[in-house]
Design goal:
By secondary structure, the protein is α+β, with helices and mostly antiparallel strands. It contains eight helices and 18 strands. About 30% of the residues lie in helices and about 20% in strands. The two termini are about 30 Å apart.
């Protein structure tokens, strides 16, 4: 399949394979932060070698890379992505990329190192043609765990506002939007869900379970909290809809006590909550209700991540230009969509963003793979966007 691709699409596949080989894992107890930094430095060095101006943010827990065209105008559009990945499934064999037919297999192939490579090759080739459009590239290394720490997207944007008084007029987040897997052109998603991650902690006193007056059962307390929160979510959130555009609210973990230890009451228990709200739902009100429940039950609440969903203003001029570029490059009107998985789009100033990428299937699974024929149309649309 690779030989039948355009030369620049072949360059993308080769570069994506190099990125996949770097196990830049976050969002798990066994994060490979050294590899995340190695990936950032590889990207920064590659872009510098292509003649682009590069800023490497490498003094935080996680790195980021910002690149732009030398001597070009102020960048109104920022292409966004991430180079971290989730833990491989089932083992490190996923870091050995392979091409089979129309597909590039490997951890990060679909989420989202192939699009990262596409952006890098497009920036290099555009500069090679003597062009310097108002476009920058922002790639971060902690998207998979929420970007709450430096240098996630909001931290880089805050740094740029403070130091340069600048923020992007429009953000294009390159996450996969060909969700079925074999679309040549991904949907242009103008609405994206947000994310909130809450940690609720119950504290007690360790003691013998067989004595009178033994300490309270923290499991019962956290189960009571879970029931109260479920009632809040049912009342406040859009948990079902006919078209699937709905908020999700889950309890991904509940930990109390030690497995195999039966005769000692737990001294601490933790309940995790993740909410992915559509823009119509009031996330602030939900979190305040959760805070009230925790206060009533004597529980500690830590809000680790909290960003509402976003919708691009329908009259945004760059949105209009992108939709026109899709039609000019493909001969077909752009398909408008909504993005359910979280992305960096939620950090876009004023909601001026879209999520728009290529096609693939199986992200975060052993079946992860990217649809290679979707690369060239994506590059051609970017050409039209800045023409």
């Amino acid at each position: 399949m690779v030989q039948s691709l355009s030369r620049r699409a072949q360059d993308v596949v080769e570069l994506a394979a190099r990125l996949i080989r770097i196990p830049s894992v976050t969002n798990c107890p066994e994060e490979r932060v050294d590899e995340v930094f190695r990936c950032a430095r590889f990207i920064a060095g590659w872009l510098r070698g292509a003649g682009l101006e590069v800023r490497l943010y490498d003094d935080g827990r996680y790195p980021a890379v910002l690149a732009g065209f030398p001597d070009g105008p102020s960048a109104e559009v920022t292409l966004c992505g991430h180079f971290d990945v989730v833990k491989p499934e089932p083992d490190d064999a996923q870091f050995r990329p392979r091409v089979e037919g129309d597909w590039l297999w490997g951890r990060g192939a679909a989420d989202m190192k192939t699009v990262v490579a596409s952006y890098m090759v497009w920036m290099r080739n555009t500069l090679g043609r003597g062009q310097a459009p108002p476009v920058s590239l922002l790639l971060v290394g902690n998207e998979e765990n929420g970007e709450a720490e430096p240098w996630g997207t909001p931290h880089v944007l805050d740094d740029l506002r403070r130091r340069e008084g600048w923020e992007p007029a429009f953000m294009i987040v390159g996450e996969r939007t060909g969700e079925e897997g074999e679309e040549l052109v991904g949907k242009v998603c103008t609405a994206s869900r947000g994310i909130a991650r809450l940690k609720i902690t119950a504290r007690g006193r360790k003691g013998h379970t067989g004595t009178a007056g033994s300490p309270r059962d923290l499991l019962d307390l956290l189960v009571e909290a879970r029931q109260a929160l479920s009632a809040i979510f049912a009342r406040r959130l859009t948990l079902s809809s006919t078209d699937g555009w709905q908020t999700s609210a889950r309890f991904p973990f509940l930990t109390v006590g030690e497995p195999g230890v039966y005769n000692i009451t737990a001294g601490e228990g933790v309940l995790g909550v993740e909410i992915r709200p559509i823009p119509d739902d009031d996330l602030d009100a939900v979190v305040e209700d959760v805070r009230t429940v925790c206060g009533d039950l004597g529980l500690e609440l830590a809000v680790e991540v909290m960003e509402p969903g976003v919708v691009c203003p329908p009259d945004d001029p760059w949105l209009a230009r992108l939709l026109a570029a899709v039609e000019a490059a493909t001969g077909e009107p752009a398909v408008i969509g909504k993005k359910l998985p979280g992305s960096s789009a939620r950090f876009a100033p004023g909601g001026r963003q879209v999520v728009w990428g290529q096609s693939g299937i199986g992200p975060h699974s052993a079946e992860e793979r990217h649809y290679l024929p979707s690369i060239e149309p994506h590059l051609a649309i970017l050409d039209e966007l800045v023409r």
